[in-house]
Amino acid sequence: MKINSETIILDSDPRIRTKSEKVELPLSAQDRQLLEDMLTYVRHSQDDEIAQAEGLQPAVGIAAIQLGIPKQLIAVVVPEEDGVQEAALANPRIVSESVQNGYLENGEGCLSVKDEHPGHVFRHARIKVRGYDLIQDKNVTISAEGYFAIALQHEIDHLSGILFYDRIDENDPWKEDPEAEVI
């Protein structure tokens, strides 16, 4: 599936709130191809030349439901100073989480959300996620922290029909948490 800005559904589409279904393992050829295409989209969206040529919005992650496909598939690619952290997961689930929160200082964004939704989105600073990783071609447990942990939680939320702005305190959107890790 060729993914670009036109194939991504927006939050005005009720399908974005659909709970995604688990996928069969081993992955079918169709699910494997979809997950590969999602990973390619995120990787290519971070390359300015490719993104401009193919009409891609910059992203660090995508969930299958954002393509109108209610399957538990996500791809996350987070560039860091010393390389890149990435995962292409089927049936991901958070198995442990820190008590300490973390949040992006300037708030979050989403391929499926065009309108501005300013505010802090509190998530767990550290998590462990289990699932099948297409990149490693095996079941994995990923220990994540920082931006990678936030991106994984954002995409996993999509699998339950939750959007980032659902987590913003509408009475105090820029509320501070002195204990939280600011990213």
Protein model, in words:
The mean pLDDT is 96. The protein has one domain (14-182): Peptide deformylase (Peptide Deformylase, Alpha-Beta Complex), CATH 3.90.45.10. The termini are far apart. It contains 3 helices and 8 strands; from the N terminus they run ααβββββββαβ. The protein has helices spanning 29-45, 48-54, 146-158; strands spanning 61-63, 73-80, 83-97, 101-103, 123-124, 126-133, 138-145, 181-182. By secondary structure, the protein is α+β, with helices and mostly antiparallel strands. It is globular, with a radius of gyration of 16 Å. A hairpin with a 2-residue loop joins β2 and β3 (83-97). The strands form 2 sheets. A 5-stranded antiparallel β-sheet has the order 1-2-3-6-7.
What's this model, at a glance?
This protein is α+β, with helices and mostly antiparallel strands.
Q: Which strand order spans the largest sheet, edge to edge or round the barrel?
A: 1-2-3-6-7
Low-confidence stretches: none
CATH domain class: Alpha Beta
Helix-strand makeup class: alpha+beta
Structurally, how many domains make up the residues?
Answer: 1
Task: Tell me the Rg in angstroms.
Answer: 16 Å
User: Main sheet?
Assistant: 5 strands, antiparallel
CATH homologous superfamily assignment = Peptide deformylase
SSE pattern = HHEEEEEEEHE
Q: Given the C-alpha coordinates, what overall shape results?
A: globular
CATH architecture descriptor? Alpha-Beta Complex
Number of helices: 3
**Could you tell me the strand content as a percent range?**
25-35%
Helix content: 10-25%
Number of strands: 8
Distance between the termini: 33 Å
